[in-house]
């Protein structure tokens, strides 16, 4: 996947930009505000309020499009392309689109769905150019690096720890043969993960400081389970949900990798020594 130039955007493979020489370009963009959902309540015994837990909703990005040089036919062709991209947004529960963007030397992405799209045909008929507005509802308030990082852990036969790659010396061996390594997490915000356990393994678990993701189940040699801590899903390779197999000590919203040096540990029971686990994450940022 190639990097984007400054001012370029890509919605599920459809490229558009802010260059005025493009057939259709972004003349204006608004990133909206991440709304706050609160559990505040009025103070029942006095003035004021009692603050509860706060949650942030994803903002809505709005794009103002204008057709560039080339005449009416070029404007219609360009408008048809961006309309198709917006109307092709996923509709099934849980499915998301990827909106990539280039700013400076950075290529980053957000997740969500393209929603409202409208155009003003009067401008096309009267002035020979077209303008349109498209809205993209972002899933959350974070920005993600375009390139994912990952590590792979393999189990030693028996109930033991795993070999984590990449490793940072020195390695530490503790009781039970458990091996631990350090990974460097970029970004300035805690990064969610996709954790994939591959059998044969019983009670697989990945842990780090402050969190763990563990399954109370047994995976056969041809089975795998992917836990997506950002989306909150636990899916076996046949599509079945294994959310009920999560241990009581697993809380997916807290399973994130803060920036800096972090220790990752994979444990489980595997007599064959062929079980493995892959932890993938994208450096996460609070802003562009």
From TrEMBL:
InterPro entries: Siphovirus-type_tail_C. Residues 187-285 form the Siphovirus-type tail component C-terminal domain. It holds the Pfam family SPP1_Dit. It comes from the Bacteria. This is Phage tail family protein. The lineage of its organism: Bacteria, Bacillati, Actinomycetota, Actinomycetes, Micrococcales.
């Amino acid at each position: 996947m190639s990097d984007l130039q400054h001012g370029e955007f890509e919605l599920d493979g459809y490229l558009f930009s802010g260059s005025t020489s493009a057939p259709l370009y972004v003349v204006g963009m608004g990133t909206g505000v991440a709304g706050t959902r609160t559990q505040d309540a009025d103070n029942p015994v006095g003035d004021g309020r009692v603050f509860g837990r706060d949650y942030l909703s994803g903002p809505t990005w709005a794009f103002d499009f204008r057709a560039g040089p080339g005449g009416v036919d070029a404007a219609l062709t360009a408008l048809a392309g961006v309309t198709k991209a917006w109307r092709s947004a996923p509709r099934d529960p849980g499915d998301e689109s990827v909106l990539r963007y280039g700013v400076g030397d950075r290529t980053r992405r957000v997740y969500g769905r393209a929603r409202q799209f409208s155009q003003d045909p009067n401008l096309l008929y009267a002035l020979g150019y077209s303008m349109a507005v498209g809205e993209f509802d972002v899933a959350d308030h974070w920005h993600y690096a375009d390139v994912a990082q990952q590590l792979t852990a393999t189990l030693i036969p028996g109930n033991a720890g795993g070999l984590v790659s990449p490793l940072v010396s020195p390695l530490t061996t503790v009781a039970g043969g458990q091996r631990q390594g350090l990974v460097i997490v970029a970004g300035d915000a805690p990064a969610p993960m996709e954790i994939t356990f591959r059998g044969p393994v019983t009670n697989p678990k990945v842990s780090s400081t402050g969190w763990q993701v563990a399954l109370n189940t047994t995976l056969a040699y041809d089975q795998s389970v992917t836990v997506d801590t950002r989306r909150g899903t636990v899916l076996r390779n046949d599509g079945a949900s294994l959310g009920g197999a999560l241990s009581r000590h697993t809380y997916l919203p807290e399973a994130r990798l803060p920036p800096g040096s972090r220790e990752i540990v994979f444990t489980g029971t595997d007599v064959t020594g062929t079980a493995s686990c892959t932890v993938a994450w994208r450096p996460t940022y609070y802003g562009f």
